Amino acid sequence: MDFLQFDFSALLDPVNLLVILVGSVAGVLFGALPGVGTMVILVIFLPISFMLEPLPAILLLLAVYQSSEYGGSISSIMLGIPGSPSNVATLLDGYPMTKKNTPGRALALSLYASTIGGLVGGLALVFLSQPMASFAMRLSYPEYFLVGSLGVMAVAVISSNDFLRSVISAILGLMVGTVGMDLITGDPRFNAGRMELFDGFSLVAIIIGIFAFSEVITMIRERANAEPQREAPQVSTKLPMKDLKPTMKAAAIGSSVGTGVGIFPGTGSGTASWFGYGLSKKFSKNSEKFGHGSPEGLVGAESANNSSVGGALLPLLTLGVPGSPAVAIVMGAFLMHGIVPGPHTFTSDPILTYGILFGFVLTSVGMFLSGKLLTPMFSRVVKIPGELLVPGVLLIAIVGVYAADASIFELWVAITIGLIGFFMRNMGFSLPAFVLAFVLSGIIEENFRRSLLASGGDFSVFVTRPVSLVLVLLIVGIVGLGLVSKYRAKNKPKV
Amino acid sequence: MNRRIAETGFLTFLLAVGVFYLVESWGFLSGSEQEFYINPGFFPAILGSLLFLLVVVSLIKMWVSSEAKEKFVVENFRKIALVSVLTVLYIGLWSFFSELYYMWTGLFYFAVSLILAEREVTSIPRLVIRNAVIAVMLSLVIYLVFELLFSIRMT
């Protein structure tokens, strides 16, 4: 089926529209809470998505993901505290605008840029996914093993300053993923004779444990140094027309760069926003105003982080390999519904696949509407005191783990993993690399062993096929570049 | 606590995990007549060996690094410990007396919110009433969303 033949009535079902709206509102609301971040919001919504049909489940998570990227800019702009790492670049020009008593203008620009970015990322997803899926159909076991490994290695290189410990994190994630039934022989492995582990660790327990529980401990820890938040002023998100034309170039640069960066495994919206900000500054006639409340800087960063969401979904939908931890959570929703995403879903489940593609475009509309109507109200949630927020996040995380499987055992697993995650986070290990490796462990191991099975145990199969060779070189290049840049950063003279 | 001691403890824990995992993996490989790549212990054996090797390298690297001499401080440790104990207690009570789930939930939220209240409180009764009201409301929201909307029995 071609994407133009898609029956839109399947997408415009009231349930789908409702979940997009609910996800958008929740994404903006939770994204606005300082320190909560996209990952925590997604993991909280993951068990809820399990209770829905596959299409609304995925759309709910995508709406939450998309809108939380904008929601994170609210606390960056209002308080100078980024809602998530992807909103740090937003802070550079957004917060100075608040200091100049124009927070409403900054929020309006952020919403407009996020919407443009979201739409561009969505359109890229619609138009690029089919050609990329056709290409993916020609790939075989070695390439899938290498694409999975590339994603994990890229995240390991980028997400921590200690490369060695990032790789250890990835190996730990792969190890946790091997618990349960062997995918090839069906033998039970490492389950200590427990029935609960026969199918391996629950995705929800591991993801919520590692991100939400360790985040809660970090939030309690950081309260020691937190300064009381000042009063959030009243804001309106009406965009002055005079701001539209001068920021169009930054929006175009940010959106296209963000989409491209998002496609590349391991990058994510944080990297995209810095690229968007940097390139907008480079091509701006008013680059000296960047960092002092420049609308172009704000628009460049915000359009990039939202467009990267669409880009990041491309490898998942076309190769079945998530390129970032946030997309790995979206992949979790697929797997929990018994669907393995990949190029074959374009033919085996076209309504779901095209519903996601077009539905993703609608999430930008949902984000715009909820942002437009609710930002003035939600800009006050940044004032919620930690003593009310932290137990709320903890409680929702606990309920979320239980709701996924109705199992207390999973709760103990999540709590234990959360505690280990806290130490990992504070000792230079990479939680994103751990989670991505855990989610991809099945793909990586199965394709690695099937490659050897097909080649009769000959390891040269990973370098003799052209695409495999390119992927191997990419992995070597990424690791090499990462090591060199970290060595340079370490040996840079301190001034 | 010295960062070096804390990290040595954690890395030793990882080393123990690696050794246990490796031993289990070898259990599959030894005596098996399967081709190595079909054996379920093949991939785990690679992972276990890599983990062992990298953790040992990380330990050596940490021991020669001057940064490891810094103090490993966990701010608000008392509160973290209290919240952790309360969480374990909450899950334990839930698993043994599940019919009282909503009561445990309200009490858990209320207790954690009081532990975390750290600013100079001008009116303690006001704080207690506010947190208690929110605890009840949150329990109600959980009931409405999970029990009624999604039909998940929490009790």
Describe this structure in words.
The complex is a heterodimer of chains A (495) and B (155). By secondary structure, chain A is mostly helical. Chain A is built from 20 helices and two strands. Chain A has a two-stranded antiparallel ribbon with strand order 1-2. The longest helix of chain A has 34 residues, at 103-136. Chain A is globular. Chain A starts with 7 loop residues before the first helix and ends with a helix. The mean pLDDT of chain A is 85. With 155 residues, chain B is mainly alpha-helical. In chain B, helix 1 (3-29) packs antiparallel against helix 2 (42-64), helix 3 runs antiparallel to helix 4 and helix 4 (101-116) runs antiparallel to helix 5 (124-149). The radius of gyration of chain B is 24 Å and the shape is flat. The mean pLDDT of chain B is 87.
How much is the radius of gyration of chain B in Å?
24 Å
In the sheet with the most strands of chain A, the strands line up as 1-2
Q: Give the ordered list of helices and strands of chain B.
A: HHHHH
Please report the total strand number of chain A as a whole number. 2
CA radius of gyration of chain A is 22 Å
Q: Which percent bin holds the helix content of chain B?
A: over 70%
Summarize the amount of helix of chain A as a percent range: over 70%
**What quaternary form is this?**
heterodimer
Low-confidence stretches of chain B: none
Give the percentage of residues in beta strands of chain A: under 5%
Shape of chain A: globular
In terms of structural class, how would the helical and strand content of chain A be classed?
A: mainly alpha
Chains forming the largest contact: A-B, 54 and 62 residues
Largest sheet of chain B: none
In terms of DSSP E residues, the strand content of chain B is under 5%
* Continuous helix count of chain B: 5
